[in-house]
């Protein structure tokens, strides 16, 4: 027996990244703009998707991939009820979506009939940050009742974002949430991050977010 | 929290490179992890003991973790500094405009393998 050390230097999640690249190529070929929507449980991911559908359909054709840890279709049912195609992915207890799960989801959608795809990730502020899905933009919802310290406690998820949504701003008068402290934490992790304060109850700020999505989706369709 | 997926990935990387190198056994796996990657070593060890039982070449291999401390660069005053736990603003000028220059590493660095000496076998 002759022991020897072999250099490897391979990123641990490189297999996931390769599938993510394939997903991206598939989306690009169909002219679909896709966002990975992440948040803690209860931050308002499904509510925001429903408000986005209300703001953008029928101008844009939307599709949704719903990630859940349990075999329930509560979220997908709501999206379907709003008239949009939704694919439910049950992660079987896994705490995040990965690129392989998304590739199965994409197979079940007719991408030629979709301009904007929203992937609703599993409610979690840790694990989804580590898995590239092949979508074009990472979007995080932080909601006011979660507290203003979340950027400090979950830094990784804030670092690869293109857009931050601060949801439930209608609750600001009732909840201890120091917006300056929150924004300072965000600024340190992701300087100049595009931020949309919204309320899915009063619809405040939804148009600005929908406008950004629409501009990006139209750009993707032109390519 | 996603250590199972991470551990499975470490196993498949080790098996792939061992097979390519014509190894008969993997004895050690060296992993480089930045301070900022949210991976718990103990948890990876826990999963490793379970999933590596079935591995063709990596069964019983020992995992070694090298942690790389985080380094930050202040974009205002170009000060370079390290941190204890959470990200902190520049200690020199107080700026929040900072860039991570080290601490995000997350890869399998190398593996230690054994090869059956074919001449001796023959």
Question: Would you mind describing this structure in some detail?
Answer:
The complex is a heterodimer of chains A (223) and B (122). Chain A is an alpha/beta fold and 223 residues long. Chain A has helices at residues 14-29, 45-56, 74-81, 99-107, 150-153, 155-159, 179-189, 206-222; strands spanning 2-11, 33-39, 62-68, 86-90, 116-120, 137-143, 163-167, 194-197. The relative contact order of chain A is 0.19. Chain B has a 3-stranded mixed sheet with strand order 2-1-6, with helices on one face. A 3-stranded antiparallel sheet of chain B has the order 4-3-5, with no helix packed on it. In chain B, α1 crosses α2 (41-51). The model of chain B has no long low-confidence stretch (mean pLDDT 90).
Residue windows where pLDDT falls under 50 for at least 5 positions of chain A = none
Identify the most extensive interface between protein chains: A-B, 35 and 41 residues
Helix content of chain B: 25-40%
**Which stretches of chain B of 5+ consecutive residues score pLDDT under 50?**
none
List keywords for this structure.
heterodimer, A: 223 residues, alpha/beta, B: 122 residues, 3-stranded mixed β-sheet, 6 strands
Short structural summary:
The complex is a heterodimer of chains A (223) and B (122). Chain A is of the alpha/beta class.
List the helices and strands and how they pair.
The complex is a heterodimer of chains A (223) and B (122).
Chain A: E1 2-11, H1 14-29, E2 33-39, H2 45-56, E3 62-68, H3 74-81, E4 86-90, H4 99-107, E5 116-120, E6 137-143, H5 150-153, H6 155-159, E7 163-167, H7 179-189, E8 194-197, H8 206-222
Parallel strand pairs in A: 2-5, 2-6, 3-4, 3-5, 6-7, 7-8
Chain B: H1 3-20, E1 25-34, H2 41-51, E2 62-68, E3 71-74, E4 80-82, E5 98-102, E6 106-115, H3 118-121
Parallel strand pairs in B: 1-2
Antiparallel strand pairs in B: 1-6, 3-4, 3-5
């Amino acid at each position: 027996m002759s022991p020897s050390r072999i250099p490897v230097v391979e990123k641990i999640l490189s297999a996931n990244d390769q599938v993510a690249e394939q997903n991206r190529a598939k989306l690009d070929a169909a002219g679909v703009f896709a966002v990975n929507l992440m948040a803690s449980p209860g931050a308002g991911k499904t509510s925001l998707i429903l408000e986005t559908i209300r703001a953008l359909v029928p101008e844009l054709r939307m599709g949704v991939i719903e990630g859940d840890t349990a075999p329930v279709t509560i979220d997908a049912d709501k999206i379907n009820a709003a008239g949009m195609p939704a694919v439910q992915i049950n992660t079987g207890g896994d705490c995040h979506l990965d690129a392989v799960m998304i590739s199965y989801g994409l197979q079940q959608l007719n991408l030629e009939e979709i301009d904007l795809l929203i992937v609703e990730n599993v409610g979690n502020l840790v694990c989804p940050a580590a898995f590239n899905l092949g979508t074009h933009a990472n979007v995080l919802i932080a909601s006011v009742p979660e507290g203003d310290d979340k950027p400090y406690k979950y830094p990784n998820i804030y670092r690869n974002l293109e857009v931050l949504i601060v949801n439930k701003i209608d609750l600001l008068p009732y909840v201890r949430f120091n917006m300056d402290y929150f924004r300072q934490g965000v600024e340190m992790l992701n300087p100049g991050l595009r931020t949309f304060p919204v309320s899915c109850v009063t619809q405040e700020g939804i148009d600005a977010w929908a406008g950004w999505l629409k501009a990006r989706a139209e750009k993707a369709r032109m390519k | 929290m996603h250590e199972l997926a991470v551990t499975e990935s470490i196993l498949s990387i080790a098996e792939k490179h061992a097979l390519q190198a014509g190894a008969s056994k993997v004895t050690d796996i060296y992993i480089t992890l930045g301070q900022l990657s949210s991976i718990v070593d103990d948890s990876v060890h826990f999963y490793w003991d379970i999933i590596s039982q079935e591995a063709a070449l990596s069964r019983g291999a020992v995992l070694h973790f090298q942690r790389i401390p985080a380094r930050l660069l202040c974009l205002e005053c170009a000060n370079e500094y390290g941190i204890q736990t959470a990200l902190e603003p520049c200690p020199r000028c107080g700026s929040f405009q900072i860039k991570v220059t080290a601490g995000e590493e997350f890869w399998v660095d190398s593996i230690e393998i054994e090869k059956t000496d074919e001449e001796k076998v023959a």
